[in-house]
Specification:
Helix content is 0%, strand content 58%. It has 72 residues and is an all-beta fold. A hairpin with a 4-residue loop joins β3 and β4. It is globular, with a radius of gyration of 11 Å. It starts with a strand and ends with a strand. It holds the Pfam family NifT. It comes from Marichromatium gracile. InterPro entries: NifT, NifT/FixU_barrel-like_dom_sf.
């Protein structure tokens, strides 16, 4: 379960960065993205999927969280 830094870019999109893999991708969708909860399955623009247990209340960005990769 790698530590992932999530931050917003200039356009307001969320970026997903894994330092150990030097991988940065834009988040395409988040399963639960509301004022009450954030998380679940996260899809990236490269097609990969990651998971984090939903967080309540949602985190403020930038933040570092632990995700696990969802296997196809």
């Amino acid at each position: 379960m790698p530590n992932v830094m999530i931050r917003k870019n200039e356009a307001g999109a969320l970026l997903f960065y894994v330092a150990k893999k030097d991988m940065e991708e834009t988040i395409a969708s988040v399963e639960q993205d509301s004022a009450e909860r954030w998380g679940g399955e996260v899809a990236l623009t490269d097609g990969s999927r990651w998971y984090i247990d939903p967080i309540s209340p949602p985190p403020s960005f930038p933040t570092t969280l632990r995700f696990r990769r969802v296997d196809d």
